[in-house]
Amino acid sequence: MTSYAAAGVDIDAGERAVELMKSKVARSRRPEVVDDASGFAGLFDASALLGYRRPLLTTSTDGVGTKVMLAQALDKHDTIGIDLVGMVVDDLVVCGAEPLFMTDYIACGKVVPERIAEIVGGVAEGCRLAGCALIGGETAEHPGAMGAGEYDLAGAATGVVEADRMLGRDRVREGDVVLALASSGVHSNGYSLVRHIIKLAGLSLEAELAELGRTLGEELLEPTRIYSLDCLELARSIDVHAYAHITGGGLEGNLSRSLPPALDALLDRSSWTPPAVFEVLAGHGKVAQADMDRTFNLGVGMAAIVPADAVDPALALLKERGLPAWVLGEIVPGTGRARYR
After folding, report:
1. Angle 166-93-272 (CA atoms, 0-180°, nearest 5)?
2. Does pTM top 0.85 for this prediction?
3. Among 210, 207, 294, 190, which residue's Cα sits nearest to residue 250?
4. pLDDT band at 126 (very low <50, low <70, confident <90, very high)
5. Domains detected in the chain
6. What is the predicted pLDDT for the residue at 26?
């Protein structure tokens, strides 16, 4: 005789994980969330959209890539969910959308209830920071396909924006200014290169590096900064024309997506000093500047394009909210690409 448990799937552990995460998920609740006793689906009261003239629903989905492997190596799982939320909701806010709710999916080799609760607790904390609700999710146990200590996670979010307030390249004008919004570090892109550098250079995640003021592992697991509430408040307060979420592809690749065909973003590399972690990675990995530019955010996690007369109030608002920001460049005639002077 055999059983599901003998095949490697522990239903009891899954149920315990759900119980452990409930209180953490509750912290992300919004008033529009409707309870569903069955738990098969998340419910959100769409009457909240009746105040819009023409609401456009937006959606985004993403994961955190191989950053999960570092979380597993260091046995630290309480912040990787924040990374997930940041990667998803900050794509939504680029068009000016408010993130409303999110769902997550975790696949693992073995359900360890406490570990799953830590992961989901991070997702819930990320949702709280983003102002959206975590209304559902799924944890799947895949014995044989993944090792007992391995897992991966992904998520999807839905947001809303008023049609005539949607941001984007159509609003960008010659003479606009590009503002940089600081990243918290590497965020969640480029970790395959990060791991390659660690392996080639023989670096230890537990090593204290003077340049970083903490261990390499602590630096690399610094959670992705979540910009949605800051970007929404900025768009409510001044005439923001466009945003660009700086992820894989770097500043040039991502900012170009927010430019019209006849305009360029001319960026000033001397306007900021990238965080020390990027110098550490480039130095130990002997990575060329062009590859650093294409792979990492280099200290700029979000860019905002605003009219020239909005620069001072925009920087003042962001400073008040505790988000470092500076003038990164300007919009000039061109061919629709971001480039350095």
Report:
1. 115
2. yes
3. 294
4. very high
5. 10-35+54-162 (3.30.1330.10), 169-340 (3.90.650.10)
6. 63
